[in-house]
Amino acid sequence: MDRVIVRNAMNLWINVYNIISIFLQICLRKCNIRRWWVKPHLRNDLRDEYGAYNCIFRYFKLNDEEEFQKFVSMTSEQFDEILELVRPQLTKRSKRRALTPEMRLAAVLNFLAHGNSIQKSAWMFLIGRSTMYRLVIEVCTAICNVLEEKYVSFPSQDDLSVIANMYWRIWHMPNCFGAIDGKHIRVKAPPNSGSYFFNYKKHFSIVLMGLTDAFCRFIWVNIGDFGSSNDAGIFQRSDLRQALDNEEIDIPAPTYLPRTDVLCPYFIIGDGAFPLKNYLMKPYTRANNLTHEEKIFNYRLSRARLTIERAFGILTKKWRILESPVDWKLKNIETVIMALICLHNFLITEEMSKDEAERKYVFHPYNIENEAEIGIYLGDEPEDATSIRNTLKDFFCSHLGSLLWQNERAL
């Protein structure tokens, strides 16, 4: 009998304990009381001793330049230059010891370069997960603030002439001041978005449309259109198309094609998804039976269009955050993409004065997408634009504008 009474009493106390525990958990949730002000593994002394900033980043910076470049996708000199620009915006004041601007920048650049999850980066640098997410947005915003105006602004008339000259010297495309195309950036489907962001590649995305110069630097970008939109529709709605149609861009006056007395206007180039305009040249449609001369034109235009393809290739290979779906607010995704474009242009510009062997932000091989999978623009082609394209075709096939190898590669 005594044992039964003791057993019942113990069961009663266990039940009371469980009820009290559940009650306290509910109260804590309602009152939003934290278990810790700072989690034990996020203390400053542990971060200083075991965190990636002191143990890895600073060691690489002082002792191993090659590993440092892999860690943040830039040299230590380039890192220090960016740090000095963003330092005023990343310097914080707090009752507790704040993270240094250098640590903030290092953590975010490593995250962007390697495409880690927010949680993995937070563990590596021994900072909170929510803090890491906030750092990404703060640092990317600061990068945009200090670099965008200088490195991603649309060129002046004189600069457009220089770009066109380099397109001729490097890519053998006269009077061209840019190559345009779109790229899908993978995202998680936004809430209540339906199929707006679902693209022809069968995943969710937003579209980054860019215009690049002869050195694969972006001179204009449009970020954030629905993944279900095609390039022609995005271009039609863009401020670039409106400015070109309304002659609001100070494009240089038509000039003679090299070594000829044939006048030709300046233009940009795109693939078959774009409309043919006086200011936009596209390939002859492959659905038609192309002549050999038209195939040569298509080859020359596709060769010059490698600048935009390579720009997208460099961007995604150097900043691997773009290779996996991003589950953030769309506004924050656009901020991150813009920051990566600013860094891309900054790094290419910084290395242009170096010998090719010393350049670290190198071009990676990148295959041109199969144009058969790209929607072909089937709208009316203006007679003036068709005449300009035919003039360029004749120039490419003449002894004044031809290349030694073009007949073999124009298939």
UniProtKB/TrEMBL annotation:
Tell me the cofactors it needs: a divalent metal cation
InterPro entries named in the record:
HARBI1-like, HARBI1_dom
Indicate the segments annotated as coiled coil, or none if absent. none
Subcellular location per UniProt equals: Nucleus
Its keywords, alphabetically, are: Hydrolase, Metal-binding, Nuclease, Nucleus
Task: Enumerate the spans annotated as DDE Tnp4 domain.
Answer: 180-345
- A Gene Ontology CC term for this entry? nucleus
Provide a Gene Ontology MF annotation, just one: hydrolase activity
Q: Which family does it belong to?
A: Belongs to the HARBI1 family.
This chain belongs to the protein called DDE Tnp4 domain-containing protein
